Amino acid sequence: MPPEFLRMIVVHELAHLKESEHNKAFYQLCLHMEPDYHQLEFDLRAYLCYLDVDGVPLWSAAMPSDESL
User: Fold this and answer.
1) Contact at 8 Å (CB) between 61 and 1?
2) From the CB of residue 59, how many other CB atoms can be counted at a distance below 10 Å?
3) How many whole angstroms separate alpha carbon 47 and alpha carbon 40?
4) In angstroms, rounded to a whole number, what is the distance separating the alpha carbons of residues 51 and 35?
5) 4, 21, 54, 67 — which has fewest CB within 10 A?
6) Considering the entire predicted model, what is its pTM?
7) Mind listing the pLDDT tens digit for each residue in 2-21?
8) pLDDT tens-digit series, residues 16-64
9) In contact, 10 and 44? CB cutoff 8 Å
10) Nearest-5° angle of CA 61, CA 42, CA 2?
C-alpha cells in the first residue's frame, strides 16, 4: 500500500483525538495536517472498491521471509 494512503489514515485518526465527529472542523484539521487529504481519501476509497471487486492488490506487501524469523 502506498505510504500516502497510510499517512492519510494516520492523519484521519490523529484528527479524531481532537474532533470526534466527521464535521467541518474535523476535515479542516485533516487539511491542516495533510493538504491533499481529500484527494488521498478519494483515491483510497477508489482503491478499496477495486479490491472489493477484483480482490487482487495493486501493490505487494513486503513480507518477511521465513529465514528472517
Assistant:
1) yes
2) 9
3) 10
4) 26
5) 67
6) 0.75
7) 899 999 999 999 999 999 99
8) 999 999 999 999 999 999 999 999 999 999 988 988 887 777 776 554 5
9) no
10) 20
Instruction: For the beta carbon of residue 1, count every other beta carbon within 10 angstroms.
Output: 13
Q: How far is CA 47 from the centre of its chain?
A: 10
What would the DSSP string read from start to end of 8-58?
A: HHHHHHHHHHH--S-SHHHHHHHHHH-TTHHHHHHHHHHHHHHHHHH---S
Place of cell 476535515: 27
**CB 5, CB 40: distance < 8 Å:** yes
User: Residues in the chain, how many?
Assistant: 69
Whole-angstrom CA distances from 58 to 40, 50, 53 are 16, 9, 13
The three grid cell numbers given for residue 15, joined into one nine-digit string:
484528527
